[in-house]
Request: fold
Amino acid sequence: MSDPGMTGLEPAVLDVRDLSVRFATASGDVPAVKNISFQVPPGGSLALLGESGSGKTATARALMGILDDSAVVSGSAIYDGRNLLELTDKQMQRIRGTEIAMIFQDAQSALNPAFTVGWQVAEVFRKRAGLSRSEARTRAFDTLRGVGIPDIDRRFSQYPHQYSGGMRQRVLIAIALALEPRILIADEPTTALDATIEAQILDLIRTAHSASNTALVLISHDLGVVAEMVDRVIVMNHGEMVEEGSIEDVYLRPNHPYTQALLEASPSFIGTRAHGSGTGRKEES
Amino acid sequence: MTDRLLRVENLEKHFPLPFLDRVRTGARSVRALDGISFSVRKGETVGVVGESGCGKSTLARTLVGLDNQTAGTIHLEGRDTATLSKLEGARFRSRVQMVFQDPYASLDPRMRVRSILEEGWRANPTLVPRADRTAAAESLLDSVRLPAESLARFPHQFSGGQRQRIGIARALAVQPDILVCDEPTSGLDVSVQAQVLKLLAELKAERELTVIFIAHDLPVIRSIADRVIVMYLGKIVEIGPAERIFTAPHHPYTRALLSATPDPLRIIEKRKSDRIVLRGDVPSPINPPSGCPFRTRCWKAQDVCATVAPLLADDVDSAACHFPENVGFTPASAGLGRAL
Reply:
């Protein structure tokens, strides 16, 4: 609809039309998302970019069916011929994690503090893939090694609190990608991490995304992270889609006044302008 | 030199470890600051960057006197602040003020804005006579672009950005010379952050303030700092003029930190500079590596890095590294820093 060039080629793996989310509160309805439409091509990538309160997380949570009970959702989100927004909890349960997986901002609270990390990763293979205990354990070992957990023999039986923030985020990525989902929704996956750890995690997500046919939907407030990870971006403000396009178009030729203001406000743009174009100076390796 | 408003020499801050950690690690304390030296000239903005646990917040707290140093000295206009009398100490604290990171936790929820702003005047009664305080408080609010009606309100009635303005007004109330800002914008949205940074720059010019600005966000530092200090595990690994640090970093850690920060324009224009992704996590400050603290993650590390701790050649423009990068490369503006 908004981009005929893309929909014309191959059917989108996720087709969202007129998605709206309202929250019923004591002081009346609060609209959080207003008539959002977008398509995600198979294996493609897309970011929802916005500041706090722009509705980007509510959009992701609506797609996963994990919004609060006070939320009223309308519109449609077609995945594999079915409207995700109309599925029952039980049907949704089968899709979550196996076909559409999500990684969260706060890896600390997304893991269960009472079970070892290895057990939690193995659980995915036992419960969702029906593997035996020992098979699941082997697969969990491989998966954790694959996301770069060091000293895996010792780390496997440790608890989440014994892991650093970056390692916990690696575990979440391992769990999300364990069953090779077709869509990965990453909600501010690196916001709580230091810059050098952020670089590691973004690298890991990018590698996983390009190695498999998993489509990536990234939720972020960070212009730099978005530019680095995806091809297309949707800028959101107060629950509305204010602009959609390729990274180049949106960042270099923003049409909407809000996008322009957001770019103006970003220190990475200000800094570059103030000091000339010295940022990307090629260095010998 | 007379224009050195603040001079910090070999500053150390150790925090004692709880008993069990002492037994487990064999260490007695965490060296949050491990021999920090630098000086600040009047009117400049010094940016301090580093990742969590590098000691940058401890540095801020020690500079304003919230924590006492374990060793080393802090000189304000040539006076050692550790030797001040009680009365002089109160004056010192009004001259070096802090803007805190969390605008929610740093304002007392049960105090009205008027009391928050006037608290410093009650501690230093000679600053503003009682009769003038309402007018002075209103003018403070005006200078941080908040309406005078705010005086009667409580912190919870303001947004995060507005609260940070109140935090800034509170710091300015006692007419400081130096403002120490500890991640003042890290909890704010980009557009609000831009407003607060702009406000700080304006206030700095209006009031001839000297600013020490602590942040983990390199683009923010780049947008406001004249000089930059890069910290890693309680030590300064590199210090220099902002332009030089950002264009020709000498320390491998600085270079890795710069390349780790996603820069939208670099990516769009496909100027793929070599992206350095460091392995592993920052080591625990309880048991820092021997020699160079960065050697465990450094791709250039050799045997000497484990045995000999590299030192800063000076506290103006140098890097603590045995194998520095970009040596011989001098951007045109680097000479400015040397002129100090």
